Amino acid sequence: MTFINYASREINCKIVYYGPGLCGKTTNLQHIYDSTAPQAKGKLISLATETDRTLFFDFMPLELGTVRGFKTRFHLYTVPGQVYYDASRKLILKGVDGVVFVADSQEERMDANIESLYNLEENLQTQGYDLNELPYVLQLNKRDLPNVIPIDELTHELRKKDEPVFEAVAMDGTGVFDTLKAVAKQVLTELRKG
Amino acid sequence: MAHSPFILQEQQFQKIKAILARLCVECAARVVFLVDRDGQTIAFHGDIGDMDTTSFSSLAAGNVAATSSMARLIGEDAFPAVVHEGERESIFISVIGRSLLVVVFDERSTVGLVKLRTKRASYEVAATLDEAARATAAYSFSTSVFSEITDEDIDSLFS
To answer: ipTM score here?
Structure first.
């Protein structure tokens, strides 16, 4: 839920990166963190297991600048991708303003993508959201790997509506900011409507 | 669709700041926060030192979200308060509807005192947030500054 503070002239929005385990959600955030000027970001918090798998969430605040005299701050979250952390995923979707679905382009991860996408829709519904009405972007990650499914086929399988689709290699930052920009733009456009 | 935005106007913000300032003194607390359950800082008062308040709020909300879910798993509706006691610093979190009142205190105070003082402040905060919710419901986005946001404004954020 977008929070607007008139006293401090701030707009705060929440964006959640969703997707199957090891698809690159944390890598997206890590790249944004590494590429952003220190004054525009807070700390990158990772609640992870000892083997660096996301346990609860990753979080980083990102200040993009000023719109109509209001500072715009995006709170970026990732969910844990592993199937058995579903309770945590539900909690993190609370109050979401926009979602990025990070798909793993590798052939052997197609089933995991579909399962995670179904899980996203289901968990959004539980929280009172409809994916069709929510700012949403599809990112096709790991495009640099040899065993990837062609873009057309992936898009056909995973695209839910007319959402923007971006090819990405989060490890080197390709497509990461295009994805973020697309979802942030939709969130701010929604704000115009109230 | 996304849930409607929540707007805090100057008047309610100042009321909340005053409640937090008084609570901070009454509890002998180091710092007092009001945090949205989605993890966004609404206001705070006290000595934050070099604390990262944005991360702190996000983690406090995550903490309450997790413990509330645990409560339901054992047949409780919710835990209305959560306490973390450290060797030097402690945290008391009181859940007020969609918000959390978070008190950070040290050996100059006690859990009992914090709990007692927070109770009254909770009612006042709840009333002020209700006031803000009513004002938000009556807010007309179509005539607000936000309706004037252009595509160029948004693009300029990423330039």
So the answer is: 0.88
